[in-house]
Amino acid sequence: LKRVRTRHFQAAKEEGSPFTGLTSYDMLTAQIFDEAGIDFLLVGDSAGNNVLGYDTTLPVTVDDLIPLTRAVAGAVKRAFVVADMPFGSYETGPLEALHTAVRFMKETGAHAVKLEGGRRSAEQIRRIVDAGIPVMAHIGFTPQSEHGLGGHLVQGRGQAADDLLADAHAVEEAGAFAVVLEMVPAEVAKRVTAELRIPTIGVGAGPHVDGQLLVWTDWAGFTTGRVPRFVKQYADLKTVLADAARAYKADVQERTFPTDEHSF
Ligand code: KIV
Ligand code: NA
């Protein structure tokens, strides 16, 4: 079983063979997704919404993500593990970004880091890559800038497509090995994918990209409230767990659990 490396994403693009990613925040899901052949696992700052109980990703810290990333990296045999750099851990400059990336690499066993921003983050990307750490870039809708962008809005529509292209080229030139395109029109993502040498990874970016990524809790049916339109739910684990909890409670109340077979 060969570990996935950055060159495999590049080769997948060149062969036209799409690759697959999911987020993961713990050892149990990391093991399952790895054994199922998911190519990369992102320990996203979406842990803020899905694990830590925050409304946005903004409060998430490096110290929050280090133990989660260590759990995921320690659980996989094949998948490529990407550590997400949270808000406030790279914006002040390349040196801050490098410090954060080095912490993730030393303390977690992740294989790469991800940070948000195109042209505005190019110097940070370059500095991290120069230190030998692979960087996955992230452009389009960038949740850490939700307030600056005015909400959860599709990016790169109309005239803004040129800005998205400029961001895509900037991260490629800065040395990113791949770039996430979040919530961009399919036609624009197609153009970015055709123009770049490095692979594109879509999250709500349509089918004309080199790889796909979804937040696992959305994908497995845990999301309460509005599920983004680009998510396909592959399971309904929320219902499975809720039914199990109700059945357990009923068994205890009716004294049908535990029985002799569950007792010493
Ligand atoms: O944190 C995250 O899950 C992400 C993906 C949605 C791209 O950054
Ligand atoms: Na993120």
TrEMBL record:
EC number annotated for this UniProt entry: 2.1.2.11
Record-listed Mg(2+) binding positions: 45, 84, 116
Primary localization class, coarse: cytoplasm
Active site: 182
Subcellular location(s) per record: Cytoplasm
Enzymatic reactions: (6R)-5,10-methylene-5,6,7,8-tetrahydrofolate + 3-methyl-2-oxobutanoate + H2O = 2-dehydropantoate + (6S)-5,6,7,8-tetrahydrofolate
Alphabetized InterPro entries for the sequence: Pantoate_hydroxy_MeTrfase, Pyrv/PenolPyrv_kinase-like_dom, Pyrv_kinase-like_dom_sf
Cofactor: how bound: Binds 1 Mg(2+) ion per subunit.
Family in the record: Belongs to the PanB family.
Protein name: 3-methyl-2-oxobutanoate hydroxymethyltransferase
